[in-house]
Design goal:
- With about 325 residues, the protein is of the alpha/beta class.
- It has a seven-stranded mixed β-sheet. Strands 3-11 form a two-stranded antiparallel ribbon. A two-stranded parallel ribbon has the order 6-8.
- The longest helix has 19 residues.
Length: about 325
Amino acid sequence: MYSLVFKFFLFLSLLQICVSARNLASEEPNQFKLLKYHKGALLSGKISVNLIWYGNFKPSQRAIISDFITSLTHTSPPTSKTLHQPSVATWWKTTEKYYKLAASAKSSSPSLTLTLGKQILDESCSLGKSLTDGDIRKLASKGDQRDAVNVVLTSADVAVQGFGMSRCGTHGHARGLGKRGSKFAYIWVGNSETQCPGQCAWPFHAPVYGPQSPPLVAPNNDVGLDGMVINLASLLAGTATNPFGNGYYQGPQNAPLEAASACPGVYGKGAYPGYAGDLLVDTTTGGSFNAYGANGRKFLLPALYDPTSSTCSTMV
């Protein structure tokens, strides 16, 4: 299981959010070498992203996440007068570079297409409001276990082991029921709005540590859900390129740096600890974003590590 946890750049005493479980200490993103390919399978084929909502989410909140998933393959109609770039789909295309490198290494041609799958509601919190990693896997198993990624999303009043203390979410894999149960990938992300927004919803909330610059306005006017989008985006990139622990990563297998977590706190050009980078701003709402999505959405997405240039690739 591979978590989004907190890292310290000790010389600046700044908590870096949404990164993998490895102390970066004095390293900066542009110093990373190419993430090593460990010859394992990447997530490939036509994959459904199933959303498992645990706890109370408003329909408008569920729409933010589902629109983000739809945006991964959404493009503006050819007749559109407005070219909505940069787009979520363009951001996601950076992951294709990992597939091309894997293809040359294995003489194969893996590819990935993600679509929005089923949405499962567990508003009564069938496993209680204090969850362990085992509980997350049980919830993830409610989704399809073939050709799918099952995403467990916990509401603001649900506590999860390590949430806000060491991680904002995680991704992993499990085996389905039965002796011949298939291996499937899953993701968990929590709503940090009331529990740990300074850790898991920056830059839409003041950080717990480091420079206290004013928080940015969330593009969908929901600090908790816009923070979830950031963490889900990071974990989805990690799931695609390292679904079973033997794909692309750097460092120990149980605490790897991956496609997004190799670029902590970077959202736009000119980013530095405490500053997310030069972003786009919605002139109506004041919301900060770096990617357009489906249904008129705007999102803030993390930089992805570009394996061909060994740099953190930003949208703006």
